[in-house]
Amino acid sequence: MTITVRAAAKFNLHLGVGPVREDGFHPLATVYQAIGLYDDVTAGEADGWQVTLSAEDHIALAEVPTGDDNIVVRAGKALAAHHGIDRAASIEIHKGIPVAGGLAGGSADAAATLVALDRLWSLETSDEDLLAIAGRLGSDVPFALVGATAVGGGRGEIVEPVADNGAWWWVAVGNEQGLSTPAVYRAFDELVGAGVAEPQVPERLLMALEKGDAGLLAEALANDLQAPALALRPDLAQTFADGEEAGALAVQLSGSGPTVLMLCRDAAHAREVAGAMQAKAYDRVWAAPGPVAGAHVVTY
Ligand code: ATP
């Protein structure tokens, strides 16, 4: 028997970053949205851990490990340890989420693995326990379980759903060269240092979501990692300018980048903006709706 679970990419509508803590982490106040780019994870019975990879066009797999350092193996081991069982599994990952793109693809795979193995091994882990295991794997993993639109606090691991009445459309423009998340945080520390205030989720963003108004959302998007990421990668400024010229309502870096997200009015507008970006010779362009569901079983 195999079980396939689908998990979505995340985009931070708001990413507020606070001063680095003594343990090295930065406190976050973020609003996540799950958007329609997906990885599928298929888990099957096996005596030892095995990871195999495949991907949609234009998604490079070179950086993704197939050994025990793949986050899916860490997720599987954490779930087995939680239940005190000694089991392994084969995990096939089909990636539709660009790697090292600031879209939390690895976190999506980890969340999908928890859901798949919970079902494969008939564990019936409570939601609360799954979220706790997810939070120990990485700050974006709990949100990948929950999906839709949610506020994240702490290191991102405390997730609270928020009212979102929008049927949003995004165009995601990827970049062939990844951007290291720790390097972007280091650049953030250098740029703003310890002088930065405790981050907060702005009320006007929550209002824009509740109203489902794309014009209001365009004005409320923000990402504290954008300036440091652009300092490391000045070439991305051209993608921002091209997105604006293509008619996007707003253009923002996804997480620590380098993927750039463009807010559109509706599906037809997203197709138009995506077409305009392709005409400018960008070859990693995806139109994606949001919000979409968290990790869920698609076949078993
Ligand atoms: P984040 O924004 O959470 O830092 P990201 O979207 O920028 O994530 P990911 O695609 O999650 O980046 O991958 C970051 C790194 O994690 C990769 O470069 C790779 O070395 C490692 N990794 C481990 N397991 C996976 C996985 N299943 N999928 C992708 N990357 C993985």
In percent, how helical is the residue content?
25-40%
Query: What is the overall pLDDT average?
Result: 95
CATH topology of the largest domain: Ribosomal Protein S5, domain 2
Report the order of strands and helices. EEEHEHHHEEEHHHEHHEEHEE
Structural class: alpha+beta
Strand content: 25-35%
3D shape: globular
Tell me which CATH architecture of the largest domain applies here: 2-Layer Sandwich
Number of domains: 2
Q: Tally the helices: what do you get?
A: 10
Number of strands: 12
Q: C-alpha Rg, in Å? A: 19 Å
List low-pLDDT spans. Answer: none
Q: How is the main sheet built? A: 8 strands, mixed
Catalytic activity: 4-CDP-2-C-methyl-D-erythritol + ATP = 4-CDP-2-C-methyl-D-erythritol 2-phosphate + ADP + H(+)
Pathway: Isoprenoid biosynthesis; isopentenyl diphosphate biosynthesis via DXP pathway; isopentenyl diphosphate from 1-deoxy-D-xylulose 5-phosphate: step 3/6
GO biological process, one term: terpenoid biosynthetic process
Domain GHMP kinase N-terminal: 70-147
